[in-house]
Every structure is written in C-alpha cells, then in structure tokens.
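dumping this here so i dont lose it
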C-alpha cells in the first residue's frame, strides 16, 4: 500500500513540474538572439542584426539587452507579458503579437501590422533563437 501511494505521489509531482515547463511564461525565459525580421512572413531577412548582442526575458516581465562593447553592456529595454494566446510588448507603447515556439525558436507576429505613416514598426515579424 505504501509503495503504490508513494508511486502515485511521484507521478503526480512529475506531471505537475513537466506541465509547468511547457507554459509560455516559462518557455520564454532566458537568452535569445534575433535571427530574422520582416514586414511580413514572406519578406523575412535573416542575419545577426544585433551584432552579437542578445536579449534576456526575465521572470519579472523585464526584457534586458546584453551588448558587449556598447555604452551600457546590460540595460533594460522594455517590459513584456505572455499568456496562452498573445505576447505583449511595452516599450513604452503596447504592441500585441501572436507567437509560437518551435524547439529553440520563438516567433512573434504583430496582430495589428503597421506599414506606414505615424508611429510604424519597421518589422511586424521577428524570429529569435535560444542561446544555450
């Protein structure tokens, strides 16, 4: 009886912790480099656009830029929030993105793409790769 109860407890703990890892707010944490961006998904440009710099998503909702050789090697560049449906960026204005994770890649696509006039986004689609 004790062995089966212990087994059930272990299985429950493993299921709880493995489910936590797959939540978007946990998947996004860590260091990412931008590998592509574009106005649309059909017009993505690939390359190291941050020239060796990378961003870090922290659990407190702050995005940090790590940039060796810059005036400030480590600086906060904005806030973010992620839920089951959208990724929100505040820098300082709010932008809302659809997102997807594919292995070590993270893609965001602006749900209200802007193509000109007023305050515009140079790009509406961004692809990041996890740095290990």
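and the seq i came up w/
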């Amino acid at each position: 009886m004790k062995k089966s109860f212990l087994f059930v407890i272990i299985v429950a703990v493993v299921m709880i912790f493995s489910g936590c890892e797959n939540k978007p707010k946990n998947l996004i944490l860590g260091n990412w480099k931008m590998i592509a961006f574009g106005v649309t998904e059909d017009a993505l440009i690939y390359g190291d656009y941050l020239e060796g710099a990378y961003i870090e998503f922290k659990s407190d909702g702050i995005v940090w830029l790590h940039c060796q050789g810059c005036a400030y090697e480590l600086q906060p560049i904005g806030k973010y929030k992620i839920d089951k449906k959208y990724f929100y960026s505040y820098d300082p204005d709010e932008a809302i993105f659809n997102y997807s994770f594919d292995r070590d890649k993270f893609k965001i696509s602006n749900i209200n793409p802007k193509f000109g006039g007023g305050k515009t986004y140079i790009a509406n689609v961004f692809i990041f790769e996890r740095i290990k």
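The longest strand covers residues 30-38.
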